[in-house]
Amino acid sequence: MAASGKARRQRQWLPLLSDLRHGNAAQWLQDGLAGTITAILLVPQALAYALLAGMPPEVGLYASVLPIIVYACLGTSRTLAVGPVAVAAVMVSSALIPFAQGDPQRYLTGALILSCLSGGTLLMMGILRLGWLTNFISHPVLSGFTSGAAIFIIATQLSALSGIPVPREAGFIAIFTELARHADKLNPATLAFGLTSLVLLVLSRDPLKRWLTARGVGSGQAAILSRVAPLIVVAITTMASSITGAHDRYGVDVVGRIPQGLPGVSLAFLQASGWLALLPSAALIALIGYVESISVAKALAFRRGEKVDPDQELVALGATNIAAACAGAMPVAGGFARSMVNFDAGARTQLAAVVTALWVALSAFLFTGLLADLPKSVLAAIIVVAVWQLIDLRALLHTWSYDKGDAMAQGLTIVGVLLLGIEHGLLAGASLSLLLFLYRTSRPHIAVVGRLGDTEHYRNVLRHPVQTWRGLLLVRIDENLYFANAPRVESELHRLIVEHQPLGDVVLIMSGVAYVDTSGLDVLDTLERELAAQGIRLHLAEVKGPVMDRLMHTELIRRIGAHRIHLSAHQAVCAIRGNAEPERSP
Amino acid sequence: MAASGKARRQRQWLPLLSDLRHGNAAQWLQDGLAGTITAILLVPQALAYALLAGMPPEVGLYASVLPIIVYACLGTSRTLAVGPVAVAAVMVSSALIPFAQGDPQRYLTGALILSCLSGGTLLMMGILRLGWLTNFISHPVLSGFTSGAAIFIIATQLSALSGIPVPREAGFIAIFTELARHADKLNPATLAFGLTSLVLLVLSRDPLKRWLTARGVGSGQAAILSRVAPLIVVAITTMASSITGAHDRYGVDVVGRIPQGLPGVSLAFLQASGWLALLPSAALIALIGYVESISVAKALAFRRGEKVDPDQELVALGATNIAAACAGAMPVAGGFARSMVNFDAGARTQLAAVVTALWVALSAFLFTGLLADLPKSVLAAIIVVAVWQLIDLRALLHTWSYDKGDAMAQGLTIVGVLLLGIEHGLLAGASLSLLLFLYRTSRPHIAVVGRLGDTEHYRNVLRHPVQTWRGLLLVRIDENLYFANAPRVESELHRLIVEHQPLGDVVLIMSGVAYVDTSGLDVLDTLERELAAQGIRLHLAEVKGPVMDRLMHTELIRRIGAHRIHLSAHQAVCAIRGNAEPERSP
């Protein structure tokens, strides 16, 4: 027992170690292959997302070594692939542009503060078990946010793709007016590199896979080949750019010299200022990063009958982001597409992620020198193709057909992200979805019921031919009684009681009430006093166990007394009926 | 029918006219008497609350004529007594001190803008039927807010009571440090007037009533005499101040010259600037004013079997506040104590309010000249005694014993109002109560159930000795499925399914689910796909009508098919049981 307890604790705190102990050579090999494939996808994306975040490209590599290893040790998901992600990158950029005000050093330090703060936020939430706070983001809002952010990201890449200069701080609309205003500054060579890469990348997806499988290549191998495409595009375009002298001769913006290797772990950023100013942005980055990561992790885990622990994931992703800050990198999260690739390539444990990290580290030492001539428009093309698949406007129609309110929240989030900016759009959508929820539960269904034939069933008088009694009102409440509907429930009960006067007894049937908060209790309490003043007795029936446990010690229940609390509507009627003459309802 | 329809419409839009048509002379006399008693209570309070709001005392009178008449015509409550109220007054002051920055003209105009904006807010909410928005304020938060505001108001009156100067912008703590720092500036004459009034006012409440009834005075008459006390205190102290020359000889701060009469209706404030800056404060004043008014109105209406229409009340109170702005006055609301006095004095219709307004107008023309020597400390004493009864700290203990979360929200509101200020305290408390609600519903009760004996009842396997079947999992969800609990429900279902493998069928029993939003639908949809991929069939049972109506047209239901949607848990088991061998649960 002690040993199994220890094993469970180790699985809890260092899942990777216990996974490795139970693995075998064949599985390790499989993990190594999956990690390699993921690395091939990751390296070009890491460079591109660093640029998207407004940082030097090598920062994307820094974000893909130490943080990945930390997550591999602590994370409970066996296949989640963490690293730089597009949405977090654009959130970093939108937080840092006003923060740095053009100072590149302040921008870089700001990114580390964001990593550390969002890591700290997640860590605290994990320790305090506040994971439920992330539930504020409903699915439609998350979907709207992702689509909106993806559209915004694509707009930001139009400048790099075309060579037309657009200030980084330009909003969605401003980007297009700037592009139109400076259309004469379009750089044909830049555009050529960008469009060629775009076409190659698009072709290398489904068309290449279909072409290969049609020629007898296995679908697994075809998928792998299709994933190598971005790296091949980078290699080809870099060579082409180098041979033609694209930068010097045609003015194509290229990546330039990238420092070789990885920086040492540094805590210098801790002394910088601006922590408080960046906290709200960091919290939002943490929230979105976590929600994305945990949903991928849960879906993948369930496919293999594994489990992820949402609270431990908070701790793991928190530590991962703090590691990113120490490694000189931007915030990271679990990427959806990358994790799917990792899973499909056969990753079974986080050993695959360690392999990925080692490949990235190796490329930071060996290949950075070769990337100097890589045109930035190629990286822009990689971003566009990667985020294009995040846009899902059909989801909006889909939501609309099911729930107009949710669709409004989703639409507001998309429009908000584009017109108000990333953060305000998200907050506007989340607030609206909360408001709509309160609206829905603010008008609960309240039915006057009567007895169905000679049965013990009591049904809505408006829908069924039921028996009622003069002087006796039976009312069923079909929703939790809480502050958002307490005023409405009070008005409705007042109305029903006034309409059914003269009354001797009122029975509230509480079968649909799972929770009564203080506002709900106040409504019941006031109602009992008001009725008592008019000589009417209030009864309760079918009160659920947990509700009764709470009510038990209240003044209300002492006043009502045990003889006016009934197990069922029928028992209530039987107990009262002596003083109520039978009457057919119309 | 047409006539009754017209009558109903008139009752709806001009309730007073139809009430008067159905009244008689005896009732009108009764209303006249009630209106007079209310006016006697109102006049000193109106002067005092105007000072509390940081305005000249006559503004309180202006707020008690035209606005009262407008409400009398439009309001659906027959006995609500509107006018200046203490909590709104202190909210006006806290909004205008930073807004006016020491400019008295800007302060005065700001108050009119606040009246107009809060009226406009209520009017819009009434027209758009957004009354449910006020449900954001839970009872514990409202109670905490009222107590906190009352404590804060009393603190602000210490300066006027003692004559020690304290800057109006001082916060709760600063008031006491300022009082201590300048204790040497205490004015004994001011303090004497204040304390004497305080003692007289306290004695004139219950002690006077008890003394009078003990001497054979009827309790009704005793109550009326007790209510005249504030006016008598004002008369006596004004005379004493005038005779002793308290202002000139002892430096007692007095009300000073009050302009005679009422100002004409003016729309000049419409051209002032600062509307946008004052909107949030105005919205909060509107919210609190409405919530207070509607709860008093509802309680009083129900006592006589009458009805108030919450939406029409929004329109009526909105128009009333816009009238206040045009009359040169601060925002008004229905006062709790004043409405009770009006009701107890026998008011049957809003004719009583019209009488009240006429008395106030008369006193503005006749008596303002007499008030020049009234010490401000007397008005401070009136404020202190009036708001003292709003402090209800026992409510906090009461809430704690019923619901710790609600008590935390209540406590935070009190502390927040005192330390963060009126508005931020309210927002902090309201946010916490919302958060706690989401927390509660974020962990719904989910039970694995089995068959109880040979009945058709299915109960929790953990609580009852029930029959279960290998390969068949029956799960009951006891809460609405919505975004705040969707992630948790998904994790729980994943866990239960992984634990009960191998499975052939999973039945979700939806008897406790009254609503499934898009996030909830996504959880069900994803679950069905994941289960189908593992060869497990998902079934639904006991789906409520409104939930089924929505689900009907979804892809999920098309995939599940009618044969896997069951009326009851038992029917689901009967339909599936061919491929599930019986098994006793441990």
Automatic annotation (TrEMBL), chains A, B:
Residues 462-576 form the STAS domain. One of its GO terms (cellular component) is membrane. It is a multi-pass membrane protein. It comes from Fontimonas thermophila. GO terms for molecular function: secondary active sulfate transmembrane transporter activity. This is Sulfate permease, SulP family. It holds the Pfam family Sulfate_transp. InterPro entries: S04_transporter_CS, SLC26A/SulP_dom, SLC26A/SulP_fam, STAS_dom, STAS_dom_sf. Gene3D superfamilies: STAS domain (3.30.750.24). The lineage of its organism: Bacteria, Pseudomonadati, Pseudomonadota, Gammaproteobacteria, Nevskiales. The keyword Transmembrane applies. It is found in: Membrane.
